[in-house]
Amino acid sequence: MKQFFKFTLASMFGFLLAGVVGFFLLIGAVGALTSGVSEEAETIQVPENSILHLKINYTIPERGNKGSIDFSMFGMPGFGKEMGLQDIVKTINDAAVDEHIKGIYLDLDLNSQSFATVEEIRKALFAFKKQQKFVVAYAEMMDEYGYYLASTADKIYMNPNGTLVLNGLASEVVYLKDALDKIGLEPQLIRHGKFKSAGEPFIANKMSNENRAQIESYLGSLYHHFVEQIAKDRKKDKAFVHAVINELKIQQTKQAVDLGMIDGILYEDQVKAELQQLCQLPKDQDPHFISSNKYKNTNVKQAATTDQIAVLYCNGEIVSGKSNDGNIGSVSICEQLKRIRKDNNIKALVLRINSPGGSALASDVMWREIELVKKSKPVVVSMGSVAASGGYYLAAPANWIIAQPNTITGSIGVFGLLLNAQNLLENKLGIHVETVKFGEYADLGMPNRPLNPSEKQIVQNGVDLIYTDFIQKVAQGRKLSQDKVDSIAQGRVWSGKDALKIGLVDELGGLDRAIEVAAQKANLSEYRTIQLPGLKEPIEQLFESFSSEAEAYFLKQQLGAQYEWFNAIKKQCKYQGIQTRMDYTLSIH
Fold this sequence. Notes:
The structure is a single chain. The protein has about 600 residues and is of the alpha/beta class. Among the domains are: about 45-165 and about 250-295, 2-enoyl-CoA Hydratase, Chain A, domain 1, CATH 3.90.226.10; about 310-420 and about 475-580, 2-enoyl-CoA Hydratase, Chain A, domain 1. The protein contains 21 helices and 20 strands. Strands 8, 11, 13, 14, 15, 17, 18 and 19 form an eight-stranded mixed sheet that branches. A six-stranded parallel sheet has the order 6-4-3-2-1-7, sandwiched between helices.
């Protein structure tokens, strides 16, 4: 009886404690909402001789949050008021024409990005400098991504004890065959496209020659573009920059100064003293720093016209159903496309695609709705970091496709994956399955047995049919012959720079350029832009963040550096069914 009361009281205490914690979380959420609304509504006054403080110490998402909730108040890093890529670009563009803003203080840290994301910010910074304004970059630690952004600056400074990592680009693929063998799972992979590598890690322990060739090709394209641009920015020879990287000549920040890759080693207060001089202020007067988060609320005016260009964001893996948790849901996107098609005020559509692909069926459903929009209004595609496989499927019908030189695209191929768990069930777990069926193929694809030869052919026929349909649609959209598309397809991945050469994209550039092209094609001189789908309310973001991001946060704490490998394996195991998808585990560092 004592044990009963002990556990009962413990349970009651736990319940009450959870209630108290929940109450304070709710109070915190309401407080965050209130502060967010007040900040959004506040009119920001920008004093003369102001400097825009652009702090990039996080992985930049495509879109930022609605409102200004700072989730980090709950003790979880990475839940803060992070600006999205387009918020950052717009803020820089606004600051370029603001006479009160004299320059930008680019405050960098070591964070993984994508080169296509950095490329878009670089373009905005170069445009900013053309207005006779300065950009100064400072960091304690930088890798290639941070340095690629910093190289746009007039001056690059680093902490005397900081670290600059310039050692090249690498990409790993996680192979699972031995691991699956050990637990008794047999992957049954059926694909079309000799370069289609997304299912390869299930059936091999090392790269195929074709996969290695394509990775060397697109990674080499990204690397050579990086070296070329750095050499141009720092006024160096390309061979010199390559040698700096290849021979790891920078192991201390002093060496970076001696080689001319940065301009000095200073502490942050010394950098701010330099900024004071650039603003030509007296020694007793500090420059005014305005954070990019605050400044983004100062310029929200749109043209006074009813004509609109819709920017529809398609971010994440492609799935059937509603969009959620970073996925592109065919039902949700089709609802938006129907709205765009029927709204007479919307004169053009810009599809912003950032996706490695996914479900072949969901891709085709959305393709049809994009085709219907195209019949009445121009459709322009802006590719982000990745627009490959199913992501390219969505782009194919567009009137014009724009990518960054370091966008990952192509991967026009199809694969099907079924897992045979017979060995796991019978020999590892002692589970035996007996089947009664009417119809020769009634149990086709069941995980308790392997496919027989005739069933494999049935699945292969389905994969081949989808591949043929895929290349026909690409040929139709790009005005190329099917033979030409087939020769550059086969599941092969391309950089945006190489995709331009072979006709898969029309132009290199970012979202701003895509909107300009859409306006030209719709004959618009004045227009408003609307971003779809609308961002969720802050309270929705709060609870969704606790359900999904909190899980990832705690896993990262437990697994440390191994989290990325765990996440890669977890995502690979979602590949069952017929997919138009590139290798989702692609990482470049």
